[in-house]
Write a structure and sequence with these properties.
This protein has 383 residues and is of the alpha/beta class. The protein is built from 14 helices and 13 strands. Helix 3 packs parallel to helix 4 (116-124), helix 4 packs parallel to helix 5 and helix 8 (224-233) packs across helix 12 (334-345). The longest helix is centred in the first third of the chain and has 28 residues, at 74-101. It starts with a helix and ends in a 5-residue tail after the last helix.
């Protein structure tokens, strides 16, 4: 590491990044890219997160790992969540006090509204309390509403600054009147730092192979059952679903539900860009009335690789998506989705126009652009 960079990053600053569950989903990925800011050194960073594999790896800084058992029943899941919040509370207090003992200035980044225990602990320790929000809806509707209510309450009275991933999400939270002394910042997401910035696209091959890609979860509100219906209606089209879950979860799902022969379910891969590069179109089938997309990273990533997209009719993706790059369709209207895919498959010139428009629309959301925005944000706290 160069001497100049060491001088830019004083050892008296401690960044404590908190994310409850480490996996390969969007919010830990964005936090991981956030922590690679040019203003940060891994020696300055402590990460409090779960023991599972994910984007929050050792190379980003020191890690404090929490125990969070996986349960299938709703009651045990809720009990596990409460236990995780207790761990977050005490782990954050310990790490903050440890940093104070070293006479370090402490900045805590509480990632997502699920970090309630650490939000409370940060406030009690009088550390700078930043909440990084990526979502509006969480899990089942009943439990999700309770979590959102409690999280909003803590944020309103305890956060020094709230960072939103989109204007759409910021507008949603303004309804709840965050206290006047709290700053708010919109920090739009960018493409993953490990993505090729300008991948070479073989448009003719993408079109001729005609693979339709879904990147998401094995969840009802994310449109997994709509995907089954769409693929069943198009038996001659190859569908792939890259899912944020384990191979065992996919096996259990396929035992319970019959899959069309043309649909392949793939456990989440770190190298997901290769799937985008080989696909012809990307589907986001989230049900807007049950799961509002605050940004939709899969849509952004798909467009960056020259894929037309199908998106929900509402959400934060409209800050970069336009109808020249795809269609906004309620996923329940499966016939309409099928018709759009069929129309593109029958007309290379039309598909190519959508593809090229998609690439142009996301030019301002590169990994480099995201890093510049993060550096600018952190410069207010790291002198």
């Amino acid at each position: 590491m160069s001497e100049s960079r060491e001088n830019e990053n004083p050892s008296s600053v401690r960044i404590i990044a908190v994310h409850p569950l480490n996996d390969y989903s969007g919010s830990p990925r964005v936090l991981a890219d956030f922590l690679t800011s040019n203003l940060l050194d891994p020696q300055m960073v402590t990460i409090i997160t779960g023991r599972t594999c994910g984007f929050l790896h050792d190379g980003l800084g020191q890690r404090c790992l929490l125990w969070s058992p996986e349960h299938r029943t709703k009651l045990l899941k809720l009990m596990s969540f409460v236990f995780l919040q207790i761990q977050l509370f005490f782990a954050t207090i310990y790490m903050v006090l440890k940093s104070y003992f070293k006479q370090e200035k402490v900045l805590v980044i509480n990632n997502t509204m699920l970090s309630m225990g650490s939000i409370l602990a940060t406030n009690l320790c009088f550390a700078t309390n930043i909440v990084y929000l990526h979502e509006w809806t969480i899990g089942s509707q009943r439990v999700g509403r309770i979590i959102r209510f409690l999280s909003n309450f803590l944020i309103r009275i305890m956060a020094h600054e709230v960072v939103f991933v989109s204007e759409f999400l910021s507008d949603r939270f303004k309804i709840h009147k965050i206290h006047k002394s709290c700053k708010t910042t919109v920090l739009p997401n960018g493409l993953r730092s490990d993505f090729l910035p300008e991948p070479k696209l073989d448009q003719q091959r993408k079109f001729s192979e005609g693979k339709v890609l879904f990147v998401g979860y094995l969840k009802k509100n994310k449109g997994i059952f709509e995907l089954l219906k769409i693929s069943e209606k198009m038996p001659s089209v190859a569908f792939q679903a890259v899912l944020n879950c384990s191979a065992d979860e996919i096996k259990e799902f396929t035992c319970r539900y019959r899959l069309p022969a043309n649909l392949e379910l793939v456990p989440q891969k770190v190298d997901v860009q290769s799937y985008y590069l080989e696909s012809f179109l990307v589907l986001n089938l989230s049900l807007a009335d049950a799961c509002l997309e605050s940004f939709s990273l899969s849509t952004l990533e798909g467009m960056s690789c020259g894929n037309p997209v199908v998106v929900p009719p509402a959400g934060g993706h409209f800050e970069y998506f336009d109808s020249v790059a795809g269609e906004a369709i309620d996923a329940r209207n499966t016939d309409e989705v099928v018709e759009f895919i069929s129309r593109l498959k029958s007309d290379f010139a039309l598909w190519k126009q959508y593809s090229e428009n998609a690439i142009v629309l996301v030019e301002d959301y590169s990994a480099a652009a995201f890093q510049r925005r993060v550096d600018q944000f952190l410069s207010r706290y790291i002198q």
